[in-house]
Structure formats: structure tokens, C-alpha cells
Amino acid sequence: MTTDSGSTTIPLHLTDLRPTLTGAEMAAVLVPPRQFDTASFDSYRPDPDHASQAETLQKVRDFAGSFAPAKPAGFFSRKPRASDSKPGIYLDGGFGVGKTHLLAALWHAAPAPKFFGTFIEFTALVGALGYADTVKLLTGAKLIAIDEFELDDPGDTMMMTRLLADLVATGTRLAATSNTPPNALGEGRFAAQDFLREIQALSGRFDIIRIDGLDYRRRNIEGHAKSLSPAELDEKLGRLESDGSRFTVDAFDDLVQFLGSLHPSKYVKLLDGVDALVLTDVSELKNQTDALRLVAFIDRVYDAQLPVYASGLALDEVFAGDMMNGGYRKKYLRAASRLIASTQK
């Protein structure tokens, strides 16, 4: 590693990697992130100050119970409610309130076959396999769990509407999380009124459950993402080397430019075998396309539970003010929250 202290180990750069990912590999990783390997309903801790969390926990438990074989209807059996016919549930709430934990707990409770992925992972799967082969792969799934359900362009809107409709028609059940209610997806991002039919079709497939609360990642963390001085960063590099960690070192601007050369579906492969990320000379982003790529990348970094060590501007401040006030505000806030947590490790 070439550092100010004069060590000479050749650094590993993310920007030197060229990951590839086949459709089969993409499907194989459609499981909850590793921090949710043991997520269960019992391990979810509702915030007593927000009653909707305990209520949501019970509703998701009830939905999980719907996978049990139906009992013969008796004379005194209650009549089905209209909501019973909905094939999915949709957890709407702010970031850091435990939506992904509950989604993963539901996935663990559901029978196989089942798939769990972010919205971008499912759209990337269609891009890699084609629509017909994606439907063939997912047909027969008892549950499709979609985390971070956000529609950023009309093509994705129509494609996901069609995909979910085709899967529901074969008996698949759905569960999703998002920071945006289904009938508001796309607002401020594209001409949502032109695609109202598709958005309403998505909304009609879910029972919407609102979950409130504070971001658990920030309950005990104040301030900004941790930024290291050059001397502190050099010391951290030395410790990572002595620990035998496999880490990468990249200039922030170089990494942002490099991410533009990869499809976001490959970001997860980029992090294979990496124990920590080091970023130097972090600076504010001016281009929204770059900012959204960074958000997608940080989601994968956070899922992998990788620590991030950085110098320069605090990473949660890289999104320019006009970005934070636009249609992608919630995405940037989620990324900032995850960056704060990742730099505190």
C-alpha cells in the first residue's frame, strides 16, 4: 500500500475490477442480506413510543400465517374480508424503522421456493435473462419479497406491473417495503400522471401498512459520517494490513466515475471478498446520475455490512442541497443514514 508513511504494498482498487454476473448468479443471491440471516418476528423490537411498529409486526405475522394450509370452512367460519383477497402486503414508512427486518422475517417464515431482493435486483434480473425467462424462473415461488420498492422511470413501472401481475396469476404472494406509498410512486421523478393506470395497478395488489418511528441507525449516533484526517487514515491502513484484511483504496471521484461504467446489478459482485472500503478526498456530488449510482452502491455496501473509512467531506454530506430537496430526497436520506452507520464501525 503506498501511503504517507512509506509502506509499499500494492493497493487493491475497486476501479481495477471488472465483475461479471450471470443470470443464474443473480438469482442465487436473491436472499436477505447477511445481517438478516437470523431475522425473525421474535427478534424484532418494536419501539414502544410508536404503536404502529407493534401493530405492523402482528399484521406481518398474520400474513405469514396465510401460507399455512387452509382449514375446511365450518358453519361458523367468518366470511372473507375484501382485504383477504389482496395477494400482497406493503410496508410504508421512513428509513430505519425495521421494515427490512420484518420483510426478511417473513421470507424466513415462508415456504420455498421464495426470493428476496431489492427492486433494482429484480429489474436487473429481467435485464440479464429477458422477461420471459425471468417469469419462468420466478413462477412457482410462494413469496416474492421486494425491498426498497421505488419506481424511477416509466419503463420500470410498466415492467414491474406486468411481472407482478403474471406471478400473482400463478399464486405467488408479494411483500414489499418502501419509503413511498404505492399510489405516490414516481412523484417528482417522471410524469407519474401519464402512468397512473400502471401505478394504481401496483397499488391494488397490496394491503398498505404504515409503520412509523425513528431511524434506529441514528438513535445512538449523532452528527455526520466519520471523516478521517490523512494521518488517521494512514494509521487505519496500517491496522487493516496488520490484521490481514482485504480492503480497497479508491479516490472518491475515481470510484464515482467507475460506477458509471457498471450496471448497478454488478455492484454486489464488486464487493465479493472485501472486508473494508477506504475512500480518499471525498467531495460533493453535482450530478444527480452520479448521486443515484452512489446510492445504489452504498445500499450494497450496507447489505454486506462493510466498514467504510474516508477522508475529505463527511460522506453523508456529498449530496448537494438541490438534490436533497428533489424527488429522490428519501433515497439520499436513506443513503446518508447508512453512510453514518458504515463509517462508525
Automatic annotation (TrEMBL):
Its lineage opens with: Bacteria, Bacillati, Actinomycetota, Actinomycetes, Micrococcales
- Keywords of this entry: ATP-binding, Cell cycle, Cell division, Nucleotide-binding
Gene Ontology cellular component annotations, sorted alphabetically: cytoplasm
Listed name of the protein: Cell division protein ZapE
* Biological process according to GO: cell division
Q: Which domain of life is it from?
A: Bacteria
Q: Name one GO molecular function term.
A: ATP binding
Write down the InterPro entries for this protein, in alphabetical order: ATPase_AFG1-like, P-loop_NTPase
- Say which species the protein is native to: Subtercola vilae
- The answer to whether UniProt assigns keyword Metal-binding to this entry is no
Is Cell division one of the keywords UniProt gives this record? yes
